[in-house]
Specification:
64% helix, 144 residues, 0% strand
Length: 144
C-alpha cells in the first residue's frame, strides 16, 4: 500500500512539474504585499506556537496541558510583539539596526519557537506528570 501511495505521489509530481520558474508564482504574480505579509506571519505564528507542542508532545512524557499552553502563549506573544513592533511601528517601532540579535521580523519565528520550547521545558519540571494512560499512549506513538 505504501509503495502504491509513493508511486502515485511521484506520478503526480512528474505530471504537474513546472516547465519554467514563472509557474512557481501564484495569482499571476499579483500577490499584494499585505497578503504576502499575512502569509509570512501565519507561517511563523504556527512555528512559534504549535510546532513545539506537537514535537515535544511526542518525544517528552512530561508534557501536559499547562506546559503546552504556557509555551504556546510565550511563543505566540513574543512573535506578535516583534511583528507588531517592527512591521507596524507600534511600541516605538524601530529599524533594522534595532532588530534583536540582527533577526528580521520575518525570521523571528525561529527565536519565538526556541522561547516556547525553553519555557515548556522549564514549566514541565514544575508541574505534575501527565496521567499514566497518556504516557503509555506516547510510548505507542513512538513505535515505528
Amino acid at each position: 500500500m505504501v509503495g502504491i501511495t509513493f508511486t502515485l505521489y511521484i506520478g503526480i509530481a512528474i505530471w504537474s512539474r513546472a516547465s519554467s520558474t514563472k509557474e512557481f508564482y501564484v495569482a499571476g504574480e499579483g500577490v499584494s504585499p499585505i497578503a504576502n505579509g499575512m502569509a509570512t506571519a501565519a507561517d511563523w505564528m504556527s512555528a512559534a506556537s504549535f510546532f513545539p507542542a506537537i514535537v515535544m508532545g511526542i518525544f517528552s512524557k512530561r508534557m501536559n496541558k499547562e506546559v503546552v499552553i504556557s509555551g504556546m502563549v510565550v511563543g505566540i506573544s513574543l512573535m506578535l510583539f516583534y511583528m507588531i513592533k517592527f512591521k507596524l511601528g507600534f511600541f516605538g517601532g524601530g529599524t533594522s539596526e534595532d532588530w534583536w540579535f540582527g533577526v528580521s521580523p520575518e525570521d523571528f519565528g525561529t527565536l519565538a519557537m526556541c522561547a516556547n520550547i525553553l519555557v515548556a521545558i522549564l514549566i514541565s519540571y514544575r508541574t505534575t506528570d501527565p496521567p499514566k494512560a497518556v504516557q503509555l499512549m506516547i510510548d505507542e506513538i513512538r513505535k515505528p
